[in-house]
Input
Amino acid sequence: MERDRRWNDKGEAIGHGVSWLARWSLRVALAALGFWMVLWLIGTLWVVVMPVLLGLLITTVLWPPARWLMSKGLNSALSATIVLVVGLGVLGGVIAAISTSIASGVPEIAKSAQKAMSQLQDWVAGPPLNLRDTDLDKLIAQGVEQIKSSIGSIAGGLLSGAGAVTSGVVTGLVALLLAFFFVKDGMRFTPWVRGLIGERAGSHVTNVLERVWVTLGSFIRSQAIVSLIDAVFIGLGLLILGVPLAIPLAALTFLGGFIPIIGAFIAGALAVLVALVSNGLTTAIIMLIIVIVVQQVEGNVLQPMLQSRSLRLHAAVVLLVVTAGTSLYGIAGAFFSVPVAAAVAVVMRYLGEVIEARSVGAPVMDTSQLDGDEPAKPERSPE
Output
């Protein structure tokens, strides 16, 4: 065997080591080039990739009730339509309830804001600022002039923001349509893959895809748990401090938890702003501390722990992939980085199981029994 080979002199041994290192360096360089090409292709086709990823994540939520409806005798198209319509109705109902509650609390907040403005004017008129009304008028006039001089850049920013919102709406609609088709025809995919690439390779591919699907479901569940805990603690802080609109703000915090970085920031900023205009500066400072503590614990401790357990990724890996995804693709990269990394880990673990099964001289591996499950039966496609 190669490992038992003896060399005649050190030069021959060193030459063999250098040759071995050169071969593996070339392999690593080619693998890195392929990885870079995949990232480049994803970035180039991001307008297509993002709706597909969103559609898959939405499908993980819609698939369990759709599967239950199919087991009751409904066809796949009707089941997919029902769960999609009900899901949109539930989301719309939650948004409507939040909007109604906010609208009912606006008059109270407006009165508190007016009172806060009066207190602010009294404060700036006293020591140490000692600003008179004429001084305040001058400051306001200067601010207005500054805004007028910057109207061009402000308009450009608003237009770019409107374009981003429009693009997000279109992406969301495409993702919903894709989710409908994924729920309706998704069960036909693995039999199609087996027929396309053959039974031997197809068994490996379908096994990996099924594991990735389970991983995506685990990601959504862990994200929902993290968002729920975040909303509960911030909502409790609002209730204890007596801030109005505590329940709607907690609901917004839960929904914002599914939008990385910006969602939590906007929800926390709204909570602090409402506390400021309704209860004063002291309450706002306390609320700010609560928001910062909860979000730091959630982002740096709770989320990595839950996702590392459900996705079988170390907490440090979760933090690193989120950082890398954010730097490469922004907010979307922060959201998709964890499930993508978990899917890659699933593939690597499966390859490790295949190598281990073949390295010990085992017969041809039955991929359905890698996890101790019963052999998988081919799924019949619905007519």
Observations:
- The two ends are 56 Å apart (CA to CA).
- Residues 367-383 have pLDDT under 50 and may be disordered.
- The CA atoms of residues 137 and 351 lie 71 Å apart.
